[in-house]
Design brief:
Order of helices and strands: HHHEEHHHHHHHHHHH
Structural class: mainly alpha
Distance between the termini: 40 Å
Number of strands: 2
Helix content: 55-70%
Oligomer: single chain
Number of helices: 14
CATH architecture: Orthogonal Bundle
CATH superfamily: 2-methylcitrate dehydratase PrpD
């Protein structure tokens, strides 16, 4: 699975199409909540711009990519799924390194694919134990997406995955509180942090998911590794995350840029559009 996520080949159009829908859906929810109380509370304590800079979706202030991802995912609310931390992490780190749209989109495909496959592998026992999969599986997907944007090779990407697995958490009991969207927000930020640490040669357990004391052993009693590899790179199960919801309040410029995201020379063009034409 790590080899799949870290490969340099581009994904085909049928695979990219649902990813564009996922991107638009996440941006729409983030813009709708960009100035929600939970975001304003979190933003008031956010550190100032660092060497790596990025914007939270719909917010003009520059900050670190970790905080940008956190605030974007927090704004997206608790209705989002595994895709929320993945998309927000990829967009934030993508802006900070001025990545091309195709690079960011393919990172989102890889991250969502890993997240969904891990969720299926952990099975119903993971939910029975009270875990919120955005904070566990979504965190792993965010790390993979950020690592791919940064161009990490296989060993470093495995470390990013392992770092994120170590930080995995989030309780379903938080539903209905500000902590529910916080789970996805923390997962997005942690995904970026894991990738940056791995890029700096910070190491992690090589079998962080399936090892004898790995995430699966601790967080579920129904682990089945088969969904991790069945049809990998041929069947993209992450397409199930895409919806047909029409977001009428999304600015047309944002909608148009997402439609051709893979042709954008810089993802900053899309991020900038969310700043100058916020949702109402």
């Amino acid at each position: 699975m790590i080899a799949f996520a870290g490969s340099a080949w581009a994904f085909r159009e049928p695979v990219r199409a649902p990813a564009r829908t996922i991107v638009l859906d996440t941006i729409a929810r983030a813009l709708a909540g960009a100035h929600a109380e939970r975001v304003e509370i979190a933003a008031s304590g956010a550190p100032g711009p660092a060497r790596m800079r990025a914007h939270a979706l719909g917010r003009a202030a520059l900050t670190t990519p970790l905080d940008a991802a956190f605030l974007s995912a927090l704004a997206a609310g608790e209705d989002g799924g595994l895709e929320t931390p993945v998309v927000c992490a990829a967009l934030a780190i993508g802006e900070s390194v001025d990545a091309a749209g195709a690079t960011v989109l393919d990172a989102i495909v890889a991250g969502c694919e890993v997240a969904v496959r891990v969720e299926r592998a952990l099975g119903s026992g993971h939910l029975r134990r009270g875990w919120d999969t955005r904070g566990t599986c979504g965190r792993l997907g965010a790390a993979i997406a950020a690592a791919r944007v940064l161009g990490l090779q296989r060993d470093a990407m495995r470390d990013a995955f392992g770092i994120a697995a170590t930080a995995a958490g989030g309780l379903r009991a938080a539903r209905g509180t500000m902590t529910a969207p916080f789970i996805g927000a923390a997962a997005a930020a942690d995904g970026i942090e894991a990738a940056l640490l791995a890029r700096a040669e910070f190491t992690a357990a090589p079998l962080a998911l399936e090892g004898r004391r790995g995430l699966a052993a601790l967080m579920t009693d129904s682990f089945d590794p088969q969904p991790l590899v069945d049809g990998l790179a041929e069947i993209f199960v992450s397409a199930s995350l895409a919806t047909d919801v029409v977001h009428a309040h999304v600015p047309e410029i944002v909608r148009a840029l997402v439609a051709r995201i893979e042709r954008l020379p810089s993802i900053r063009e899309l991020i900038d559009a969310t700043l100058i034409a916020p949702a109402t």
